[in-house]
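Exercise: predict the structure of this protein bound to coenzyme A.
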Amino acid sequence: MANYQNLLFENKSGIVHLTINRLDKLNALNIQTIQEIKTAFEEIYDNTDIKGVIISGAGEKAFVAGADISEIAELTEVNARKFAESGQEVFATIENCHKPVVALVNGFALGGGCELAMACHMRIATANAKFGQPEVNLGVIPGYGGTQRLTQLIGKAKSFELCMTGDMIKADQALQLGLLNYVVETKDEALAKSEEILGKIIPKAPVAIGLVIDCINAVNNEQENGYQTEANGFAACTKTEDFREGTQAFLEKRKPEFKGE
Ligand code: COA
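Solution:
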C-alpha cells in the first residue's frame, strides 16, 4: 500500500476510511494531498476487497477548509488552469468510482472542501458543519468543480448567491437546500449513519450499483444521453449472474446472495 503524508487510509472490513489529515492547516488540500487522494482512489478502484469509502477530515474543527491558499497565492494563469484541471480530474475519479463514496462532514467544508464533499455520492454532516464557496473573498472562483456540482445539487439561484457572496451556511440550511443526505449531532453518529447506508448498499449486486452511479452521473454530462446510458446499463445487468440470482431469489421467496458477477 502507498505511503501517505496527508491521508490516513484504513481498510476496515472492506470499507476504506479515508481521512484528510493536515490538522494544523484545517485539512486544507495542498497539491500533495490531491495527488495522494488520486493514489488512494487507484487502490480503491483496483482492490476487489474494497466495497465502499467514507471520506472525512481529521479532528473536530474541519472536514477540509479549502484548497491550500498558500499554494493558490503563487499561481499564474498557465499553472492555475492545470491546477484546476488536475483537481477536477481527481474529483471526477471519486464521482465516477463504482463503489459508493460517502463524505462525513464535520466542521468547515469550504471551497475545495465543499467541492470534495460534493464529488462524493452522498454527504452526512454533523450539526456543527459549515459549507461555503468563499473563493471570491480571495479574488478567485471555485476551481475543483464547485460552480457545476453546487448548481446541480441546489439549483442556480442559491448557487449564484453562495458563490458570489462567499457566505457560509450551516448544516441544517445545507440539508434544506439539498446539499446533504442527513444531519446528525456528533461525528460518531455521522460515522454510524455512513456505515449504516454503506451496509445497505454493499450486499447488493455490485455491477448494478456501479451502473446506477454511471447513470446518475450521466445527468451532468451534456455529451451523453442519460436515458440511453440507462437503457444500456439495464441491458448490461441482464447478462450478469447476479441478475439471475436476484430475480430467482425473489420468485423463490428467499434472500439473494450476490457475487459481483
Ligand atoms: N489554506 C491554507 N491554510 C489554511 C486554510 C486554507 N484554505 N484554512 C485554514 N488554514 C490554516 C490557517 O492559515 C491557520 O494556519 P496557521 O496556524 O499556520 O496560521 C490554521 O489553518 C488554522 O486556521 P485559522 O484561520 O487560524 O482558524 P480559525 O478558526 O480562525 O478560522 C476558517 C477558520 C476556516 C474560518 C479560516 O481558517 C478560513 O477562512 N480559512 C480559509 C477558507 C477559504 O477561503 N477556503 C477556500 C480556499 S480556495
